[in-house]
């Protein structure tokens, strides 16, 4: 049976998403306006929203349903 490779991430998912968003935005800024640039910016926005949703879900003001 194959063994699964396991390793611990050094950065949190939020940190990795934030870094990826910055990288993608830089790439998009170098591209001319068009569908490829729009697709990159859309992916960056989605990752940014995911990051914000995680922050919201982990916020101390959010209470579990009773």
Gist of the model:
The protein has 66 residues and is an all-alpha fold. The protein has helices at 13-30, 35-57.
Give a written overview of the molecule.
With 66 residues, the chain is mainly alpha-helical. It has a domain at 13-56. It is 62% helix and 0% strand. The protein contains two helices and no strands.
> Whole-number radius of gyration?
17 Å
Number of helices: 2
Number of strands: 0
Helix proportion range: 55-70%
Identify the overall geometry.
flat
The H-and-E topology, N to C, reads as HH
Portion in strands: under 5%
Low-confidence stretches: none
Oligomer: single chain
Report, as a whole number of angstroms, the end-to-end distance.
45 Å
Describe the largest sheet. Answer: none
The chain-level mean pLDDT equals: 89
Helical/strand content category: mainly alpha
Please give a handful of descriptors for the protein shown.
66 residues; mainly alpha; 2 helices
Strand and helix map with partners:
Layout: H1 13-30, H2 35-57
Helix pairs in contact: 1-2
């Amino acid at each position: 049976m194959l063994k699964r490779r396991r390793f611990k991430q050094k950065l949190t998912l939020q940190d990795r998403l934030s870094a990826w968003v910055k990288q993608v935005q830089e790439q998009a800024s170098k591209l001319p306006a068009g569908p490829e640039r729009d697709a990159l910016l859309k992916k960056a926005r989605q990752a940014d929203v995911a990051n914000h949703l995680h922050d919201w879900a982990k916020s101390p003001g959010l209470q579990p349903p009773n």
